[in-house]
């Protein structure tokens, strides 16, 4: 913190920071943790860190309270309140260099100073390894041919038990197999503990599933990481045989041929390096939604609560806006007749300005949506391709990984231009963009499910989409029976946004784009101590 309020008469404040979080759909704040107390300063640099789970698709509200500690009491009401700061975890992570600076508020009429919060992803669990093994002179187990060997890897648990973590393929009819290289996360292989035992069993495959045990050996990540060397040739031992036969040496050997460590880059590495997520909204203004002045309409403007369109916009937009530094969102409509001449448009600006369709924040989008409902006439048909192509034009102009585009289409689902939309999606799958479709109302959404491409990859005129970029959800699956809209919006956002980081990474991987280095971490200015001589 910088420039905290001074509450002590004879010396400076002794600040502490208390972090609170909120459960989803629950307004109640719970204490998450406290920093240490730093004596006699208005510019504390707290050391104690808070470790939290991060999910892109969830909104995690945070509250930081600051107190001047006056006694040993753990009861906060016994200490002087210095102010507080509210933000979301996404806001911190989405700020440049994952560093957020905000004013402390909460004491009327006083400047309470500022707080600087930085976040970093714990990187210990992101490595994976690519390994390849071969074996020599394994025991012959089959009566007619040689063995059909495969390997089974187990990691050991804290209590000494073993958990299977990988099986190789079967190499048929050989006592000297060479298995294909395989990739496994370090977490799965040894739980990130380099010295933990890894047990490898060698089996002879049998069609009926009663595979014959050839033998086993143990190793560890640290041993394997020496790579191909005399240390990584293992004797395969069958304990039963060893116990029975005096002359038993082994049941063959297994050799490590290669060992490569790959550090997986994460979604946050790109966000921290400055990649911006641009959010565009497209709203269905076709007549099948019903007359907006009637309560039965999906576009009905109820003064007391959001309609389904408003809920979908807010649910998704409030999370994504944390990752967009200028918070300016293009908002488009399709399927309406526009004033003054009643021409039908499939990509019109909700704010009435085609040169500049940007709205400020989700509140600006909502305002423009309500305004255009009053001025346009709902019409048809329901064409998606124009708005998809609109965003694709922008995405095509920045393919260097500095920007990624997310288009949210909210629709009642009766699509008229299926062939053109598929063509647009197949073309867009090469670009840095994802499409979220939220279906509102009671219609059958079979066509939307087809666009989603989770079951069958979408194709157009014999060309398949390079990656899956569409996520569809029907809004009715999220309506909370008890009428708790906060909960239904949180659930909706969770499901539609959960696939975005993976879709984002798949684009970056295919293009070979690495994250930009993050800006240098914040180092507090050094206070020069003046000494009296």
TrEMBL record:
GO terms for biological process: cellular response to calcium ion. GO terms for cellular component: plasma membrane. InterPro entries: C2_dom (IPR000008), C2_domain_sf (IPR035892), C2B_Copine (IPR037768), Copine (IPR045052), Copine_C (IPR010734), VWF_A (IPR002035), vWFA_dom_sf (IPR036465). Belongs to the copine family. Transmembrane segments: none annotated. GO terms for molecular function: calcium-dependent phospholipid binding; metal ion binding. Residues 278-479 form the VWFA domain. Keywords: Calcium, Metal-binding, Phosphoprotein, Repeat. Probable calcium-dependent phospholipid-binding protein that may play a role in calcium-mediated intracellular processes. Residues 1-102, 111-234 form the C2 domain. It comes from Sylvia borin. It comes from the Eukaryota. Pfam families: C2, Copine. This is Copine-8.
């Amino acid at each position: 913190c910088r420039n905290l309020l001074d509450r002590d008469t004879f010396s400076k404040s002794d600040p502490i920071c208390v972090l609170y979080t909120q459960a989803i759909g629950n307004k109640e704040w719970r204490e998450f943790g406290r920093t240490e107390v730093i004596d006699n300063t208005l510019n504390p640099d707290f050391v104690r860190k808070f470790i939290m789970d991060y999910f892109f698709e969830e909104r995690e509200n945070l509250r930081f309270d600051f107190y001047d500690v006056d006694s040993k009491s753990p009861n906060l009401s016994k200490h002087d309140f210095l102010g507080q700061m509210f933000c979301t975890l996404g806001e911190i992570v989405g700020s440049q260099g994952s560093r957020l600076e905000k004013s402390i508020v909460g004491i009327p009429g006083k400047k309470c100073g500022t707080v600087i919060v930085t976040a970093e992803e714990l990187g210990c669990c992101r490595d994976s390894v690519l390994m390849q093994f071969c074996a020599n002179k394994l025991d012959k187990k089959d009566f007619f041919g040689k063995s059909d060997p495969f390997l089974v890897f187990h990691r050991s648990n804290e209590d000494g038990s073993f958990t299977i973590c990988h099986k190789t393929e079967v190499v048929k009819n050989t006592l000297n197999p060479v298995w294909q290289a395989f990739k496994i996360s370090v977490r799965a292989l040894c739980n990130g503990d380099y010295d933990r035992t890894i047990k490898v069993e060698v089996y002879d495959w049998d069609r009926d599933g009663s595979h014959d045990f050839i033998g086993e050996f143990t190793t560890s990540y640290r041993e394997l990481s020496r790579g191909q060397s005399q240390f990584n040739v293992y004797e395969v031992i069958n304990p039963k045989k060893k116990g029975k036969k005096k002359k038993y040496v082994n049941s063959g050997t297994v050799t490590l041929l290669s060992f490569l460590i790959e550090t997986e880059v994460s979604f946050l590495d790109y966000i921290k390096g400055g990649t911006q997520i641009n959010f565009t909204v497209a709203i269905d203004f076709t007549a099948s939604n019903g007359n907006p002045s009637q309560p039965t309409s999906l576009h009905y403007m109820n003064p007391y609560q959001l309609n389904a369109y408003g809920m979908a916009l807010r649910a998704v937009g409030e999370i994504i806006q944390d990752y967009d530094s200028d918070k300016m969102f293009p908002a488009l409509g399709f399927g309406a007749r526009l004033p003054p001449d009643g021409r039908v448009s499939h990509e019109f600006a909700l704010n009435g300005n085609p040169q500049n369709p940007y709205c400020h924040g989700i509140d600006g989008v909502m305002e423009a949506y309500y305004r255009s409902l009053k001025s346009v006439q709902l019409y048809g048909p329901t064409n998606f391709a124009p708005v998809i192509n609109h965003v694709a034009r922008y995405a095509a102009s920045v393919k260097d990984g500095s920007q990624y585009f997310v288009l949210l289409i909210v629709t009642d689902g009766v699509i008229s231009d299926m062939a053109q939309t598929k063509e647009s999606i197949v073309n867009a799958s090469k670009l840095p963009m994802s499409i979220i479709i939220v279906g509102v109302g009671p219609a059958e959404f079979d066509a939307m499910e087809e666009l989603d491409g989770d079951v069958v990859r979408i194709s157009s005129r014999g060309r398949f989409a390079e990656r899956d970029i569409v996520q569809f959800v029907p809004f009715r699956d999220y309506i909370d029976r008890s009428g708790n809209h906060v909960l239904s919006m949180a659930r909706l956002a969770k499901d539609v946004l959960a696939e975005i980081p993976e879709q984002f990474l798949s684009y970056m991987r295919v293009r070979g784009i690495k994250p930009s280095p993050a800006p240098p971490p914040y180092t507090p200015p050094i206070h020069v101590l003046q000494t009296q001589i």
